[in-house]
Amino acid sequence: MALDSFTEGAVHEGAEWSGELYRIASTQFAGTADVLDLDAEARTRLLEPRRALTVNFPIRMDDGSVREFTGYRVQHTLTMGPTKGGFRYAPGVSLGECAALAMWMTWKCALLGLPFGGAKGGVRCDPTQLSAGELERITRRYTAELIPVIGPDRDIPAPDMGTGEREMAWLYDTYSQAMGYSVPAVVTGKPVVLGGVEARQPATGLGCVYVIEALLERLGWPIREQRFVVQGFGNVGRVAARELFAIGAPVVGLSDVTGGIVDPAGLDVDDVAAWVDAEGSLEGYPRAQAVGRSEILETECDILVPAALERQLTSENADRIRCRLVVEAANGPTTPEAESVLADRGIRVVPDVLANAGGVTVSYFEWVQDHQRFTWDGIELQDRLRRMMRAAAIKVWEGSEEHDVDLRTAALTVAVRRVADAGARRGIYP
């Protein structure tokens, strides 16, 4: 048979994960590998995920009909210990998205010194259009499909977009029923009564603020004199905005899926939160100027905190961003092209692998507690989180200054070097 008959239509390396988010993650990795002068073996072992599972399963809906759903679980590296990462419910969930997020989770864990590799997963669906009963059936069936690859010492899921304590409780129960005994360490982000920790829900937002505090001290910018805009008023953005407001920092802009609100004199974030609790969104908030969802990113401020979705700062709007510092509280909100434009304009970017790492850090605390059957109180957990996030921020800052590189490169070099060194020491089996 001719060679052409084998190569015709062949899939090139990495094509399984094709997608814009994976392109961003792999571009960032390639740049970091060049800075570190990684050898070809390390690049091969770290670029693509080690494992990926795609599942399709039927669910009976409330009206009696049957719908098919697709879910994923991607494990980026098995070198550092069990893998760790959330699972999300969203219409755009894909294999490429999960692969990119799993890679970023590896770097977060390595940067914070956590004994995990990165993982990510999810089910492609719109949770806002599903009942609680339908979501429970999806979660339990998805968990059952994942049982061969998850476990307290294999892969530990956690909440992400569209999921929370409720879904983690269903996962915990489903896995435990299959094992025949309770296994609380199989998942983090659970309700406190089931072995969760109170500090988990606000952890990502708080961790972001702790990073901001540490870096502003190094920059010599008093935090109470900086104007903040926070894009996103969900779990991460709401916590970050309220914490900034509590310490006296003016938050001049906020947004959610319905749009944004702006007040140059500073918003009363607690009042905004009360409005959202009562009305369900920022829409119609009467004590601020209403702006569009995209306009909020272009609102003049000192520090912009994207805390919503991926790919919010792009080549199309980067030249209109009016801030001095971007802090990525969301995963992948800045494309490489946008970051290049921002750098040319003198705007620094605090990368997601640092600013967004508070959630996985507290998940680590929860996992340790569940293994040891010993608990810390909420104040101690927050203190531990603050110390670890500040230490990581200072490490990144010092690396940036020492090697004259941007903050993302500094963070990724620390993380990638650690994982590459671990892989080299373990070798290749067989």
From TrEMBL:
Keyword check for Oxidoreductase: yes
Short name of one Pfam family: ELFV_dehydrog
InterPro entries, sorted: Aminoacid_DH-like_N_sf, Glu/Leu/Phe/Val/Trp_DH, Glu/Leu/Phe/Val/Trp_DH_C, Glu/Leu/Phe/Val/Trp_DH_dimer, Glu/Leu/Phe/Val_DH_AS, Glu_DH, NAD(P)-bd_dom_sf, NAD_bind_Glu_DH
Domain Glutamate/phenylalanine/leucine/valine/L-tryptophan dehydrogenase C-terminal per the UniProt entry, residue ranges: 200-427
Binding residue positions for substrate: K84, K108, S363
Keyword annotations: NAD, Nucleotide-binding, Oxidoreductase
Binding residues for NAD(+): T204, N235
Source organism superkingdom: Bacteria
Keyword Lipid biosynthesis: no
GO molecular function annotation: glutamate dehydrogenase (NAD+) activity; nucleotide binding
Family, per entry: Belongs to the Glu/Leu/Phe/Val dehydrogenases family.
Protein name, UniProt field: Glutamate dehydrogenase
Provenance organism: Paraconexibacter sp. AEG42_29
Taxonomic lineage from the root: Bacteria, Bacillati, Actinomycetota, Thermoleophilia, Solirubrobacterales
